[in-house]
Amino acid sequence: MKLTIHMIQDRLAGYNAQYRPGQDMNQSFAEVRLMGSKGGALVPDTLYVCTSGQLRRARLEGAERAAFICVGGDGVEDRPALRCAHFFTVNREGVCLADLMNDLLDCFQRLNDWERRLEEAILRGKSAQELVDLSAPVFEYNYFLFWDASYNLLAYTKGVEPPNEKIERIVRQGFFAKEMTDELVRMNYIKNAMAFTKPTFRPATNYMNLPFILKTFVVAQRVQYIISLYYTESEPSQGMADLFQVFVSQLEAYIAHRADSTRRRAGRTDRCLADLIENPGKGEEYLRDRACVLGLKEEDAYRLCVVSFQEYSMEQAQYMRMRVRSSCGRPIATVYQEGLLILFNLGENSLREQETWAERLQKLLELLPVCRAYAAFSSTLSGCANVNTAFKQAMVAMTYGRRLDPARAAYYYRDYYIYHMIESYSQHFPLEKMYVQKLALFMDTSNYKNSNLYLLRTYLINERNISQTAKLLYMHRNSVIYRIARIRETLNMDLDDPDVRLRLLISFKILELLEPSIFLTNTDRGETAGQELAGE
After folding, report:
1. Helix (H) or strand (E) holding 495
2. In angstroms, how far is CA 423 from the centroid of its own chain?
3. What is the rounded distance in angstroms from the CA atom of residue 409 to the CA atom of residue 366?
4. What are the tens digits of pLDDT across the range 361-385?
5. Residue environment code for 220-239, b if the CB has 16+ CB neighbours within 10 A, otherwise e
6. Could you tell me what percentage of the chain is helix, strand and coil, using 3-state DSSP and rounding each to the nearest 5?
7. Nearest to residue 234, comparing CAs of 167, 129, 163?
8. Using an 8 Å Cβ cutoff, are 406 and 398 in contact?
9. Is the pLDDT of residue 279 over 90?
């Protein structure tokens, strides 16, 4: 990486250095050197650190292609050989030549390390967020926002409080709200987006009320990505603008690499599966055409699996895709949204096909720990119009499975749909007020498994079978009968009433949402091989 004149000016600002421009303001410098006592030609594009005495003794051959930082200048910059060179004079008392040299060497080293790490991250397929995380210290934690053409936030500066309410809302929601994009339209930012393909500075009189640099990225003749750097921790400077140019040049390579990867993996089959998920309302003809490409008949049953990785990389996703296609009966599998989509066609869902599905499922489950991945499954559905529903079901299973059962690797929609229903209802009433409040009387925070709360739950989910409840809780049958009777009295509820039992069972689900570990010792929600082989 080369330092520009403006970067050097920023670095020397703390030394109160005086600057006299050279003839080439676009010149940049590849290294910094301490000027030696011996003569010889100077190395082009080099920043020399020296004293005025050293400069007076030097031959200065080729000085016009170098720059000089002189400690204790006394007019030596007026030598004819130096008149075309960039010249910095440091007259501040107490400045040590060695300390100044070490400071500049440290600056060069940190910027070169940053550029190298960016290049490695791009080659390894790291996310945009990781690129911004690498860059935040270089930009003194001024605030980055990086978003796509749909105004979904891709990356931002972490570890720093958002500088204003608008940016805080964008970060919290993960996208620009409609009123924000409307404001951008009104201010012609969207209309003039192509004008920002070169980094452009905007003063504080803008929609964010902060000075910032803006850059748009064009893919296939359309603006697809936008990045802004908001000056929140330092004053705007041309030196930081030059650093921004270095960073966005790396982002250009990242976006080109990402676009190329997308083109390689987004074949017609992959695109058709994405179309069924993303465009359910485009009409029957559109959906049947996509389903036909996938070999999916209208009457065929299928299940959709969404795979998420502990640490996503394209190489890892492609490897698992290859393994799934080779060992699980060649289902439709495609990389999608930093994960993997797998569509298992169950045909007419006959007994034989259910057995085949069970075998393929087992092979997939064996792959999950190898690839450090999690899998979520939809219900068995049919009809091409329901692929979107299957995807939503799988995502619900993934969301609640990771939240409630983090130790597991496979999640099934049938196990979690009730939590989704309850939490959707919580938009109208707080969950804390929705369960049977008297259940709080039975909670023993020190030992849930021996509490009456755990006893009542076990009793109800085992269809009020006294013997089975006693066996599961290692209790005497008479003890179960006695404690259930006391629970009935405390609740003042008829446990023989199916509506009462339903309300209590829903209350237990709510308690799990409020405190996922509350029933951690139970195994009644565990997915056994026998249950899965039996189907739904």
Report:
1. none
2. 24
3. 10
4. 898 998 888 888 999 999 988 887 8
5. eeebbbbbbbbbbeeebeeb
6. 50, 15, 35
7. 163
8. no
9. no
d(CA 442, CA 489): 12
> Which of 40 and 497 is assigned the larger pLDDT?
497
Helix (H, G, I), strand (E, B) or coil at 46: strand
Tokens 């899965």 locate to 532
| Cα 379 from Cα 413, distance rounded (Å) | 6
Residue 22's alpha-carbon distances to 2, 14, 17, 27, 52, in angstroms, are: 17, 21, 15, 9, 18
Contact between 409 and 374 (Cβ < 8 Å): yes
Record the tokens describing residue 73, joined without a space: 């200048």
What length does the chain have? Answer: 536
Q: Is the dihedral of CA 439, 441, 446, 449 positive or negative?
A: negative
Return all residues near 155 (Cβ < 8 A) that are at least 6 apart.
127, 128, 129, 131, 132, 144, 145, 146
Instruction: Tell me which amino acid residue 61 is.
Output: E
- Nearest Cα residue to 91 out of 67, 68, 70: 70
Of 33, 38, 81, 37, give the one whose Cα is nearest residue 60.
81
State which amino acid sits at residue 98: A
User: What does the radius of gyration of the chain's CA atoms come to, in whole angstroms?
Assistant: 33
Top-ranked range on mean pLDDT: pick from 108-112, 206-210, 403-407, 501-505:
108-112
DSSP character at residue 442? G
Spell out the alpha helix ranges (H) of 149-283.
165-173, 178-186, 238-265, 268-278
The pLDDT assigned to 241 comes to: 93
| Residues linked to residue 65 through DSSP beta bridges, in sequence order | none
Question: Among candidates 256, 203, 247, 209, which has minimal Cα distance to 227?
Answer: 247
Residue of 251, 249, 214, 242 lying closest to 2 (CA atoms): 242
176-233 pLDDT per residue, tens: 886 787 777 667 777 678 888 999 998 877 788 899 999 999 887 778 899 999 999 8
Distance CA 56, CA 364 (A): 75
User: Among positive and negative, which fits the CA dihedral 38, 42, 45, 47?
Assistant: positive
Domains and CATH numbers, the chain: 3-109 (3.40.1390.20), 125-264 (3.30.450.40), 268-413 (3.30.70), 426-534 (1.10.10)
> Is the pTM here over 0.85, yes or no?
no
Q: Tell me: the pLDDT tens digits for 390-447? A: 999 999 999 999 988 888 999 999 999 888 888 887 777 787 777 778 888 887 666 6
CA–CA separation, 187 and 183 (whole Å): 6
The Cα 259–Cα 283 span in angstroms is 29
354 pLDDT higher than 90: no
Sign of the CA dihedral running 171, 176, 177, 182: positive
Dihedral over alpha carbons 441, 445, 449, 452 (to 10 degrees): -10
462 C-beta neighbours (distance < 10 Å), count: 15
Q: Read off the tokens for 94.
A: 């107490």
Query: What pLDDT, on the 0 to 100 scale, is given for residue 532?
Result: 41
